[in-house]
Amino acid sequence: MNKSMLIGTVFGLTVATAAAGFAGYSMLSKNAADSVVARQNCYEVAVETPRDAKDEKRIAGTVVGALIGGAVGKDVGDSGITTAAGAAVGAIAGNAAQKKLQEDRTVTTSETRCDPIK
Fold first, then answer.
1. Domain with 5 in it
2. How far apart are CA 73 and CA 77, in angstroms?
3. Which DSSP state fits 57?
4. Computed over its alpha carbons, how large is the radius of gyration of the chain?
5. Looking at the 3D structure of the chain, how many domains does it have?
6. 107 lies in the same domain as 67
7. Are residues 77 and 105 in the same domain?
8. Can you list the positions of beta strands (E) in the chain?
9. N or C: at which end does the chain have fewer Cβ atoms within 10 angstroms?
10. Count of CB atoms situated within 10 Å of the CB of 99
11. Do 69 and 95 have their domain in common?
């Protein structure tokens, strides 16, 4: 056997041993569950979430309601008591109206959901 044939044989055996070791390692380290692909039915769903309120204490609705209620109370009774009562009722109504408006404001987003196929 000449020198080049011996070098080629040793090199070939080294490459074959490395390839077999890598293939064996890959087969042993792979989990059996990884090879099974679960089938799923995926679809888009519209999801509504409440929008964050800019005025959490509803001050704007309370103030506007008090001003309008006070003006109406002054026109109705033309005294300090009717003006104060109108302002109080208007403030409560304005606060409630702004609360309702803030609760009705939502943001619609799209969400992907997947169910397994049996």
1. 1-36
2. 6
3. T
4. 39
5. 2
6. yes
7. yes
8. 40-50, 106-116
9. C
10. 13
11. yes
pTM: predicted TM-score of the whole model, two decimal places: 0.52
Q: Which two tokens stand for residue 56?
A: 């959490």
Residue 73 phi/psi, 5° resolution?
Answer: -60, -40
Give the span between the Cα atoms of 86 and 81, in whole angstroms. 8
One-letter amino acid for residue 56 of the chain: E
Residues 26 and 66 both lie in one domain: no
User: Which residue do the tokens 């959901």 mark?
Assistant: 113
Residues listed for the chain: 118
d(CA 105, CA 98): 11
Per DSSP, 58 falls in state: -
Residues 62 and 110 in one domain: yes
Q: Are 48 and 69 in contact (CB under 8 A)?
A: no
- What is the per-residue pLDDT across 36-93, written as a single tens digit (0 to 9) for each? 567 889 999 999 988 888 888 899 999 999 999 999 999 998 789 999 999 999 999 9
